[in-house]
Specification:
Layout (H helix, E strand, L loop, with lengths): L6 E5 L5 H10 L5 E5 L11 H19 L3 E4 L2 H14 L4 E2 L5 H7 L4 E6 L1 H4 L2 H10 L4 E6 L1 H11 L6 H12 L9 E5 L7 H7 L5 E3 L2 H11 L12 E5 L7 H9 L2 E6 L1
Parallel strand pairs: 1-2, 1-3, 2-9, 3-4, 5-6, 5-7, 7-8, 9-10
Helix pairs in contact: 1-10, 2-3
This protein binds D-glutamic acid.
Length: 265
């Protein structure tokens, strides 16, 4: 008997695809439900109360409908604000997305690191704790960028996004005191690994952009290590809370992540 229950990935938009991709690389037969709360996108400019009130309820509805074996909150904003209430509301394992401050500090020679996330994420006490625990000897520069989230979404829809827009975002870190010595940047929003190559291309010098996705994928594989999977890949479903513009470029992109069907919550 194989177990047909899916893994449920959750984000405000397409960012969680950066966590889904490394997970599929390790667990290629895992049935996938990818849920995007596009009706409430973007999360990064919302209040803590709004996120904490919405995410556990939504994940309750999604788990009731899709009966997943495990949930991945593939969103730093939702994880840093709502991980505990989601865990309290669900009786299955919930994996959160923690800003990759520890690996960014490990990668840094200069001991100046950047944390690039949403406005909501970079102001969280959770980030203070990670910085104190894993980067106590580093200068930790933070920058929240709703613009970069929008650029990642536009890029995935197949739209042209100008280099200058990426450069303006990176300047938000590089222009801070100490920014001239920063050598490593934690991509603390799951949207950002999707456009990390664009950031690397316009950076004035080589910077390490640290993506937490592969570590989360390994965690999912570990937590499900004793479970069975279908014997062949299963078409995945992308579920949206609001209307989408199903352009061929967008649908093709989703299909590239194994998401062959779309549905509405
Ligand atoms: N992808 C999300 C994150 O990791 C949120 C982006 C947004 O909706 O602002 O924080």
């Amino acid at each position: 008997m194989t177990d047909p229950r899916p893994l449920l990935f959750f984000d405000s938009g397409v960012g969680g695809l950066s966590v889904l991709a490394p997970t599929r690389a390790i667990l290629p037969h895992a049935p996938i439900v990818y849920a995007a709360d596009n009706a409430f996108f973007p999360y990064g400019v919302k209040s803590e109360e709004e996120i904490a009130g919405r995410v556990p309820v939504l994940l309750g509805r999604l788990t009731e409908r899709y009966r997943p074996r495990l949930v991945v909150i593939a969103c730093n904003t939702a994880s840093t604000i709502a991980l505990d209430p989601v865990r309290a509301a669900l009786d299955i394992p919930v994996v959160g997305t923690v800003p990759a401050i520890r690996p960014a500090a490990l990668a840094s020679q200069t001991r100046v690191i950047g944390v690039l996330g949403t406005d909501a994420t970079v102001r969280q006490p959770y980030v203070d704790r990670l910085a104190a625990e894993h980067a106590a000897d580093c200068t930790v520069l933070r920058h929240g960028s709703a613009a970069l989230v929008a650029l990642a979404e536009a890029d995935l829809r197949g739209e042209d996004t100008p280099d200058a827009a990426y450069a303006a975002v990176l300047a938000g870190l590089l222009d801070q005191p100490g920014g001239d010595r920063m050598d490593s940047v934690a991509l603390a929003c799951t949207h950002f690994p999707l456009i990390a190559d664009r950031l690397a291309a316009i950076a004035p010098r080589p910077l390490s952009f640290v993506d937490g996705g592969p570590g989360i994928a390994r965690r999912v594989a570990w937590l499900t290590r004793d479970q069975s999977w279908p014997t062949a890949p299963v078409p995945g479903i992308a579920v949206f809370t609001g209307p989408i513009d199903p352009t061929p470029a967008f649908l093709e992109h989703l299909a590239g992540f194994g998401l062959d069907r779309t549905a509405r919550l």
